[in-house]
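Complex 656.
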Amino acid sequence: MAARQCRSSLPVPRGPARMRPRLLACLLLLPSAAPLVTAWAQPPAAAAAGPRLDRAWVTRAVEAPRVAHRTFQSTAAKTAVSYHLYTPAAYDREPGRRFPVVYWLHGSGGGLPGIPQLARRFDAAIEAGRIPPVLVVMVNGLDMGMYVDWRDGSAPVETVLARDLVDHVDATYRTVPTREGRILDGFSMGGYGAARLGFKFPARFRTVSIMGAGPMQEELAATPRATPAQAQLLLQQVYGGDQAYFRAVSPRRLAEEQAAALAAGSLIRVVVGDQDETYRNNVAFHEHLQRLGIPHQWRVLPGVRHNPNAVLDALGDDHWAFYRSALAPAAAPPAVSPPASPAADSVIKLTFLGTGAPRPSRDRHGPAILVEAGRRTLLIDAGPGVRQRLFEAGGFALLTGVTDIFATHLHYDHVGGVADLWIPGWMYGRSTPLRVFGPPGTEEFTAGLRQAYRWDVAYRQIVGITAPGSVLEAREVRPGVVFHEDGVKVTAFPVAHMPIDPATGRPGALDGATYGFRVDYAGRSVAFSGDLRVGPASELVTQGRGADVVVMEVQVPSPGNSAEAQRANVSLSVHTSPEEAGRAFALMRPRLAVYSHIIPPQTTADELRAATRPFYDGPLVTAFDLMTLTIGRHLEVGMAPRRDGELFEQSGAVKR
Ligand SMILES: [Zn+2]
Ligand SMILES: [Zn+2]
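Predicted structure with zinc ion bound:
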């Protein structure tokens, strides 16, 4: 291979790096010669007496607008690891907003010189409104790391990136911390890496873009763009000289192992130029995916060589169209405003307004979940914070548009926001009564509120706010179908949440009931656990079987023996641990299991997942405030727009 072929076609900073031997850069897998985004120059050094692949976990910093060089402590690497982060202007402008994350995987050589251009491409697309704002993490996967945990343990690149880096990014920045909020993209070795990580961890990454990828062949011997000796070197150091290991970690094998999960819920594309040396291997890979029944976009670019800029230029807006479809579920879906449009008729859409419980939390308000189905908009519970969150999710239209609350029970964290919805909803435009459906005791509860706010309501009526919207009605319901309007059916069922006397371990003396609800609409269904301690014989398990989605409360036991831990753990007798939830999910097998009503509110999604996994291995997400979930032919997790500045005078909310 001529040295010239291995040079980047992009301008590369002058300096010592330019003078390093190019042997390894020209190395096999396609990349090397690739200019730019991926393989841009910056070849790893190779000593004359036996080259050794580079293992520099912290790279130099590249300067570019809106790009920062950062490091984090990786457990797997046992050291600091660097990355570059692009943040869009909206990240600074909208401090209450969360952003999807693109993980960009470079080609061989480390990709540093291509970072400014890559960031510029994203920034231009975002500023032009072609894609919603995203964070772009430009990883350090080592010059020739292959995005694999090296066989000899010396460089756990896969674990550093797919586990440690993603956890760090979600813990450090305002991300959409779900699979829908993560995109893997890369070219050349980075395309191979995107396929590897995306196919191995479909629960972490929904979207996988595989461009000009290599090595995609079955054996790492003869390989495009490298001599057999070069391929041998890589095989030796990364894969331990073991073709079986190369095959075991290959995208081909991972596709076989994860075919069902990938087919069910991943967005995948494979792109390659027909003049790319990797073309044939990518055709074979595409056919492999077809045989496995894994849906994917397949794009061949005529006349395009192994060059990421040429690939992106040839894709044009198709590149961003793919990003738009990838980001649709994660980034700011359109406003939630009742009544839902006819196009939404065959889906149920949930907006998690509050995912906490009684403990105060900035991030998790009291339990309240908005349900939009066809022409109906309902609330399951109305905990503290519901007024603020409804406004953020849909402005005055939503605050005034909700007319029906389904209270699972009368605990303050579930009904503390009823007055907060009742009076402002009326003040700002609701002209019909607010109805509260709930267990026995609901009439007494609403009568108490009416009494408490008698003066306020009388006052506002005198100054001319129309009366019908000031009515607060109670509908005490028994288990069974409690609501059936416009095709939306709500079924109440009893759950085990009545108090247990700690002294006797027996039910305490208290009237009333606590419910879960199931909502059915147009063949879609979702079961809400309410508060309960679940068991295999729970009515929730019966109602949740066959439901698309089960929304479950959860309480993680508090460690230690302090007075506070003891008080917190008293409620374990009426709440559900991750283990109990996992066992119940395993019996119900919903298309998606969701945690909400999370105790303590600081519990992370990863902690809940880890605690649940031994008992349930199906799809699971931990809801966050303002997360949306659209239940249709596909399940889509997203994020409400979180508007907070709508002027009432411009809202058009008042119904006459
Ligand atoms: Zn509760
Ligand atoms: Zn409760």
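The two ends are 78 Å apart (CA to CA).
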